[in-house]
Write a structure and sequence with these properties.
Blueprint lengths: L6 H17 L4 H8 L3 H8 L7 H10 L17 H14 L4 H6 L2 H9 L11 H12 L5 H14 L2 E5 L6 E5 L2
Helix pairs in contact: 2-3, 8-9
């Protein structure tokens, strides 16, 4: 008997997986760290270039709080980010991982994909304002020092500028348009 491969199914699954991952505000690296599935394999799955195993499909579904068949159901709507994040937190707790620490690693991903892309940083903002915005908009907490370090990294990449203020050792951050 030969090996069966239907590219349409692989492409569909890849798009569906990526949609769930992005809706949960997770990077491929975070999916790798939480499931043990290699990041390169996750990338290949999302591109429709890897025919994954049923056990990996079930593991990915569990990460998002789904039954394995729900991950493949094209009629099912994608849950809200908050609901997906709760499912991810439950998955992590079950495996003895502190969700607050784990999800904090997503500061770079969140800033790259959401914050810098938004209009919020079109005007200069202090770290405290950014922290409050992240809690309000994305339901995730970061310390002002974590935000400052992340912003310094984005400044080195050329996507954020750091503005000095008249307040001693305080800076504001603004995206470069």
């Amino acid at each position: 008997m030969g090996y069966y491969k239907d590219q349409r199914i692989l492409d569909y699954f890849g798009k569906r997986l990526k949609t769930y991952r992005e809706a949960a505000d997770l990077s491929q690296e975070q999916v790798h760290l939480s499931t043990g599935i290699g990041q390169s394999n996750i990338a290949k799955m999302e591109l429709g270039k890897l025919n994954t195993s049923l056990s990996q499909l079930a593991l990915l579904a569990e990460l998002f709080g789904l039954e394995y068949h729900e991950l493949l159901d094209n009629k099912a709507s994608i849950p809200e980010t908050e609901d997906l994040r709760k499912s991810v937190s439950k998955f992590l707790k079950k495996r003895g991982v502190d969700p607050a620490t784990f999800l904090r690693k997503s500061i770079t991903h969140l800033f790259e994909t959401k914050l810098i892309q938004s209009k919020f940083l079109s005007t200069p903002r202090f770290s405290k304002e950014i922290a409050e915005y992240c809690v309000e908009k994305y339901n995730v907490e970061f310390t002002t020092s974590h935000i400052s370090r992340a912003m310094e990294s984005f400044a080195r990449k050329g996507s954020i500028e750091i503005l000095k203020t008249d307040k001693k050792s305080k800076f504001q951050y603004k995206k470069i348009e």
